[in-house]
DNA sequence: GGACATACTAAGCGGTTGCTTAGACCTAAG
DNA sequence: CTTAGGTCTAAGCAACCGCTTAGTATGTCC
């Protein structure tokens, strides 16, 4: 249960639905490279080499380099939306706490994927971008509904629901930028810290 | 006093110390392009064309494309540090309020520069990166001192000073990612909103 | 006017890019 | 054994990249 092994398991888990094996290895390699150097600074030769294959092998499974990015972005957005919505709590305060902890924690734990998800949107084709933006709007709507639920229950006191929604999302998303695996906080601790800070902000 | 004219004035103001005129026009063109498409997706031909000159003209004033990025990053970091430290208030609560309003507001008003400053660090050479990271640490230190001052004065109640510092900085920095000029909030309003949210978070 | 420095452009060089082509290898059905 | 289909590689193409070179225009000092 070393940290390296743990990180590898997480990658395998996120992309577990992707088949065949070579296509999944390519996605994982691309996600790593895109996160580390950015989409435009990554070459298809980088990706293929990291996946242990020849440059041409990329095009057996993907139409283009951009389609690799799109798949990472699509699966990443879908997963983070699931993380956000699958909190069991019903009480508005507990629900917000659990959701922020899970969402911020996901951005820390899967910071590699999250970085591609949050910072490489502009590299997508207009069509793919539109599809991903649709997912992002759903994420935003879920957070807004949770803020509104707390306000209606009289638990949250916010003068500006849109502003509060923006700030909660912004805080969580930015975790992908600053989080480093070797840092002082585990992903779970980041989630707990952020849940506390958001609650203070809203009440 | 159209918004286009206003935006242009801001750019001129930020880079006003840069001479000669052609070098400044090149910097402004590069900052725009880097912010819009990213450093690696921007070509030296893009920059030169936007500045109204031939591709070779870039190399009269700058040694490389990376040096353009470094100058934008260096001046941008220095300016934002000045914005953060030049708040006149002495009282910890008022000081934090004014500083967050100014810092977040700067990231909105100068979102073009701020985007390059915050998201293109990895494209710098190791030497230039080290120099910029030094500036970033000073910014972080200033925010931490303001949090500590509030805690010592008994005005802020935070269980984790490092965590609170991180969150305040993170919120402000992420403005550069989401802010759009045509949106519902002016830069000043963003500053006011964020100052309020941060104060709620800390007290 | 002549010598020199500065600011710029037209042309292009070597290297790298995303992607394609032609064909080898492996597996499995007939 | 033969054939077909899917997976992969070696080689390379056309386009584009950052940057350089050679040369022109302009202004300035003497």
UniProtKB/TrEMBL annotation, chains A, B:
InterPro entries: Homeodomain-like_sf, HTH-type_TetR-like_transc_reg, HTH_TetR, KstR2_TetR_C, Tet_transcr_reg_TetR-rel_C_sf. One of its GO terms (molecular function) is transcription cis-regulatory region binding. Residues 20-80 form the HTH tetR-type domain. SUPFAM superfamilies: Homeodomain-like (SSF46689), Tetracyclin repressor-like, C-terminal domain (SSF48498). Keywords: DNA-binding. Residues 43-62 bind DNA. PANTHER family: HTH-TYPE TRANSCRIPTIONAL REGULATOR RUTR, HTH-TYPE TRANSCRIPTIONAL REPRESSOR BDCR. This is TetR family transcriptional regulator.
